[in-house]
Design a protein that fits this description.
alpha+beta, Immunoglobulin-like, Glucose Permease (Domain IIA), 2 domains, four-stranded antiparallel sheet, 21 strands, binds zinc ion
């Protein structure tokens, strides 16, 4: 018993020392469409623009800045002593590529009613995923690219078809060739492996914990199932052109909660 107690005291002392050695750390780009990883003393509460941000048992947290994020954001830290620190973050603007195409047939711009129905079902399923996430810090495994190949599309670009703005491109396209390998860029749980979604075809979603979810679209084959835990580097399937796709490529998307962030920025923040 005595030995156990001594052990506890040593542990407590250690954690106090470690805590004191961790000032606020931010890793990643403070820019529009970005993800940033932060670290605070364990027990510190974090708020971004007055909204609570969950922290992992190690004091890590994730922040997302959407494509149209304003020039500043307010980060507030409340230590377990009650002491409060506020910090104004400057969010750098980014230039997005805008493509205007006119004179297109109407059916190319507006999906028909049958397609609309499928799109609505897909979207409801995706929205539900993004509302419930795992509070397990899988993202602490770090991130790598999920496939090899040329980057054929970047995050944030937007097409305006017949004057109608379409959703901005919310991922990174990797043209790795039909049948090329796709792997998990980080640890996580496959929360949905869906065949034949309207836009994205065979699609895999991975929950990396604390709101960070990644998506792999247009797959030719899927080698994982819903509910399966994956480690960084595990196979997810192969590059294809399923769904609404103009050629074989992997569309890789990342979201924190409902905010789409640039996967390239996720690599900056969480890369290993
Ligand atoms: Zn894409």
């Amino acid at each position: 018993m005595r030995r156990i107690l001594t052990g506890c005291v040593v542990l407590l002392l250690l954690s106090v020392t470690v805590n004191a050695a961790v000032p606020l750390q931010l890793q990643g780009n403070l820019s529009q469409g970005s993800l940033v990883k932060g670290r605070v003393e364990v027990g510190t509460k974090v708020f971004l623009n007055n909204t609570a941000v969950a922290t992992t048992p190690n004091g890590f947290f994730l922040l997302a800045f959407h494509r149209e994020a304003p020039a500043t954001a307010l980060l507030k830290l409340v230590r377990d002593t009650g002491e409060t620190e506020t910090k104004t973050l400057t969010i750098a603007p980014r230039q997005w590529d805008i493509q205007r195409l006119t004179g297109l047939p109407a059916k190319m711009v507006t999906p028909d009613p049958v397609a609309e129905k499928r799109i609505a079902l897909d979207n409801a399923q995706i929205k539900a995923l993004r509302r419930n996430f795992l509070e397990i810090p899988y993202f602490e495994s770090g991130f790598i690219l999920p496939a090899k190949g040329r980057i054929s599309g970047v995050f944030g670009s937007q097409r305006i078809l017949n004057g109608k703005p379409k959703n901005p491109h919310n991922g990174l396209d990797i043209a790795g060739g039909l049948g090329g390998a796709v792997w998990a860029p980080a640890d996580g749980v496959v929360v949905l492996a869906a065949p034949d979604m309207y836009y994205t075809g065979n699609t895999v979603f991975i929950d990396h914990g604390f709101g960070l979810i990644s998506v792999y679209a247009h797959l030719q084959t899927m080698t994982v199932q819903t509910g399966q835990e994956v480690k960084q580097g595990d196979s997810l399937g192969t590059i294809g052109s399923t769904g609404r796709s103009t050629g074989p490529h992997l569309h890789w998307g990342t979201t924190l909660g409902s905010t789409h962030v640039d996967p390239a920025m996720v690599l900056e923040a969480l890369g290993n």
